[in-house]
Design a protein that fits this description.
The chain has 242 residues and is an all-alpha fold. The chain has helices at 2-10, 20-43, 48-94, 96-109, 114-126, 128-139, 149-164, 169-175, 182-208, 212-241; strands at residues 11-12, 15-16. A two-stranded antiparallel ribbon has the order 1-2. The N and C termini lie far apart (65 Å). 29% of the residues are buried.
Length: 242
């Protein structure tokens, strides 16, 4: 029973909770940017094949770019933590008196006094690893993110591609000779994108612990604004150049 409860706390739906933020933001970015491409192409009255080509190119290029950025961001954060931790180990080894005084000052500021303060300092500084971990958390306010750069980049890319492909589904089916009328494609794409953003917006609210309806509304609003802007730009460019 306890194991099942632990699993439910570690996951939201079927996602590991520690990586759901990457899935959410990759999915939001994928859906909004791809739908913006669709809206821009629709505004410029481009053909179905052009919409599909532009949309798929955007999916792969932007998804890869976003995942690479996420990879380096996570890697830099972990490297920075490791560098500071190595320095704290060196200071504990070579400047133990100074580091011990810093521990005393930290816990004295928390309200510890007299013999209790002395005991806390002695217990912490008796173990080098506990000592360094305490300095990292209390002095530098740094904690290590357990998420690996490769996994964060992979989740971001996968979510970008999967959720970002949804606005293109109507056009892909139309390209397969499904019988969907050309004028209906953008409407179907809008509905599918709205559904995708609703789901991802709800997940985002779970991550940020905000009101679910507010999260959905915010996500839909941002997607709608991006699509409206892209449609307007496409329409203007069509009149100027086509």
């Amino acid at each position: 029973m306890q194991h099942h409860e632990l699993q439910s706390q570690d996951k939201i739906l079927f996602f590991k909770k520690e990586y759901i933020s990457e899935f959410v933001y990759g999915g939001v970015d994928g859906a909004i940017t791809t739908f913006a491409v669709v809206a821009g192409a629709e505004g410029a009255s481009l053909g179905i094949s052009v919409v599909i080509i532009l949309g798929l190119a955007n999916l792969i290029a932007d998804g890869f770019s976003m995942s690479v950025g996420n990879y380096f961001s996570t890697k830099v954060s972990r490297d920075n933590f490791d560098r500071h931790k190595a320095r704290e180990y060196w200071e504990v080894e070579h400047l133990s008196a100074t580091e011990k005084d810093e521990i005393r000052e930290i816990y004295e500021a928390k309200g510890f006094k007299g013999e209790l303060l002395n005991q806390v300092v002695e217990v912490i500084t008796a173990d080098k690893h506990v000592w360094v971990d305490t300095m990292m958390k209390e002095e530098l306010e740094m904690t290590k993110d357990d998420k690996t750069p490769v996994k964060t980049a992979s989740v971001t890319f996968i979510s970008f591609v999967i959720v970002g492909a949804i606005p293109l589904l109507a056009y892909i089916f139309a390209g397969l000779d499904s019988g969907i009328a050309g004028k209906e494609l953008f409407l179907y794409s809008s509905v599918l994108t709205g559904i995708a953003l609703t789901i991802v917006g709800a997940l985002k609210s779970m991550v940020t612990e905000r009101n679910i309806l507010a999260g959905i509304a915010e996500t839909l609003l941002l997607g709608g604004l991006a699509a409206s802007l892209a449609y307007f730009v496409g329409d203007v460019l069509e009149q100027v150049f086509l």
